[in-house]
Design a protein that fits this description.
Blueprint lengths: L10 H12 L4 H8 L3 H13 L12 H34 L1
Helix pairs in contact: 1-3, 2-3
Length: 97
């Protein structure tokens, strides 16, 4: 199983994602559109309700770093899906032979 690398997001990105959820959009749909895990977005919404979404002193993340992190997470997810498909193919091919 592949481990998804830890990602860092800008404060603006988090705020916009939380704003979309608080404006009435479904968490799952927003998370899929932004390439996030649902639980990550839920955690951001909870933190925003408590007023602790953005921690002071956090390091600044460039857009390039954020994009690289998103692409790495997507790559890990696709590799995991590929492994699942390989195993399923082998399982069903065994029945045919």
């Amino acid at each position: 199983m592949f481990k998804i690398p830890k990602q860092a997001y800008t404060a603006e990105f988090k705020e916009l994602a939380v704003k979309r959820v608080t404006d009435g959009q479904v968490i799952g749909a927003v998370a899929r559109e932004l390439g996030l895990v649902d639980q990550t977005l839920r955690n951001w919404v909870k933190a925003a309700k408590r007023g602790k979404l953005n921690t002071p002193g956090g390091k600044a993340i460039t857009p390039e770093q954020m994009e690289l992190s998103r692409v790495r997470a997507e790559n890990a997810r696709l590799r995991m899906e590929n492994e699942i498909l390989k195993k399923a193919t082998a399982y069903f091919a065994k029945d045919v032979l």
